[in-house]
Known about the structure:
The complex is a heterodimer.
Chain A: H1 3-33, H2 41-49, H3 54-89, H4 101-114, H5 121-142, H6 149-173, H7 176-187, H8 195-214, H9 216-222, H10 226-231, H11 236-258, H12 264-276, H13 283-303, H14 312-334
Helix pairs in contact in A: 1-3, 1-13, 2-3, 3-8, 3-11, 3-12, 3-13, 4-5, 4-6, 4-7, 4-11, 5-6, 5-11, 6-7, 8-11, 12-13, 12-14, 13-14
Chain B: H1 9-37, H2 45-53, H3 60-94, H4 106-119, H5 126-148, H6 157-181, H7 183-193, H8 202-221, H9 223-230, H10 233-238, H11 243-265, H12 269-283, H13 287-312, H14 320-336
Helix pairs in contact in B: 1-3, 1-13, 2-3, 3-8, 3-11, 3-12, 3-13, 4-5, 4-6, 4-7, 5-6, 5-11, 6-7, 8-11, 12-13, 12-14, 13-14
Amino acid sequence: MSTAGLRHEVRRGRKVAVVLALAVLVAGCAGLALGDFAVPPGQVIGAFRGHAEWKNQLFVLDIRLPRVLTGLLAGLAFGTAGAVFQSLMRNPLASPDVIGITSGASAAAASCLLLLGLSGLAVSAGALVGALVTAAVIYLVSWRGGVSGQRLVLVGIGAAALLSSVISYLLTRAKVNDAQQVLLWLTGSLNGRGWSHVTPLAWSLAVLLPLAFALERPLRMLALGDDAARGLGVRVEPCRLGLLATAVALAAIATAAAGPVAFVGLVAGPVGRRLVRGGGPALGASGLVGALVMLVSDAVAQHVFSPVELPVGVVTGVVGGPYLLVLLGVRARRG
Amino acid sequence: MASGPPPTGPSRGKRRLALGLVAILVVLAVLTVASVMLGARSLPARTVWDALFHFDPDNSRHLAVRSLRLPRTAVGLLAGAALGLAGVVMQGLTRNPLADPGLLGVNSGAALGVVLGINVFGVTALSGYVWFALAGAAVAAAVVYAVSSLGGAGVTPLKLALGGVALTAVLSSATNAVLLLDVGTFDQFRFWQVGSLAGRDEDVVAQAAPFVAVGALVALALARSLDALALGDDLATALGRRVGRVRLTGAVAVVLLCGAATAMAGPIGFVGLTVPHAVRLLTGPGHRWLLPYSMLAAPALLLLADIAGRLVIRPGELQVGIVTAAIGAPFFMALARRRRMGAL
């Protein structure tokens, strides 16, 4: 790509990012205001500045803010991780869902819930360990004097199949009510998320996101193919390992916080790339799309079917799926 | 070999491939016999023979062969062959090694069909699930195909893949919503969803067999077209293939095959995704060998897994969906380490 083209893409990327960030902000504020106990918009802002009614203050800051932040940060992490995986593997179907990392987290969480009888943060910790161990095993099995994206994906598929069969086995052996609890976790939910979920998530992202953006340039080269990247002066193996580790950590920490929310990691990449229209990885836009999908989905899950409150993972597919379909159609008609 | 020139490269390769096909066929035959004989209560060959040709309706062992072991084995053979073929066709159509036969939305459509069958229509019998699964699969695939053909460029592999993933997400969301809200439906569904060959009677086989047969014929007839498609749409067109028509025919074959397999045995994704990859190591990318090899290798894997599942925790058993992944996945990961894997 020419320098002028790249500069144009960066400019467009920035514009898209600003618009998306505003949309995320609006969706977040809506998440703080809406609910059985509605808080007027003025009072939402007031709550942050410390002079709202105590009841509004309680609902906005103590009850809803942790949930909204968990959704926002997890969405950001899923979206960025998905975009990294897709560019790195050069495959739009590659996402943490497909290549085994979320299955690792899910199998670990199901074991924690059903075999060890754990709950709450302990399950999240178990899921995190499960995801990281799975990723390490996948990487080591794929290692053969270097790791090709293709091989990694295939090994990941094998691992995902193995782990899903473990989950299915656990589900058929458990009592039906326990099994349904597992299903709820596996769907991905933001119910009952508090500051104890937000704090570790926020710290991890503060480290991982800058790392991902720092590696966006080599990622752009790697997406052209290993040889081309080498020719452009990229140190292929260390860069790939760095990108993989960052993306895995992002996906793992987000899964631990919110459960393996379906589809966010998969849809954010293609949507982000099409908005930026450059052919680059578009990490920033993808991350923000992920956050937006999570926040909108959670609002829909909580309020549209009331009094039934659905978990967010039920809705992400319904919100993100048709959007991706429309985008595919529209782009094809234009191009 | 003493007379005449030694066979040249290609023809020797062909002979080797033909011998390999015969070898897989033999393995499959042995596994079929074993599948009828082995289980919680293993039966000697003599009893099986008598049950088939001198049937005595008062003999409980004869009944077990006729009403349990035979249908179960038939389901394994049919579903396995269907999944193997569907996997090859799907990967050829999308030119994507990650494409599994469920990618068109077939598995998720079938799952939603079954869930609605249980939840709305109160179906409880496995033979009742078949039509719901088939209908769900067909509708889902039709929607994916229609959406992918929107816009100027027609149905491209990328649009097909992403469209399938998107619709799968929508459908599984709906399925999960029903399951989370209704414990009773979930309790039935979780046993269907694992993937199992047990408890299927001859009705299930009879309902699904015609779909598999037609799908298999269509898939096998597509071999040359899929070879052309692998070269890219432009070259395939230049070679005189009508790309759009090939894709549509392939999609119909996948729906028939995968829909019928899912209706019989539940969603067993792993077989259709991985068997073509393993087979490709032997045959290379040409579909004329890849299709028949997969058609025989996939049911062999399925039967082997089913037999193993019956024997490991006797008198209980593990569902075939669990065992295929448990024995297939490590094998597949070992294969994936080899160099040429994944190239289509």
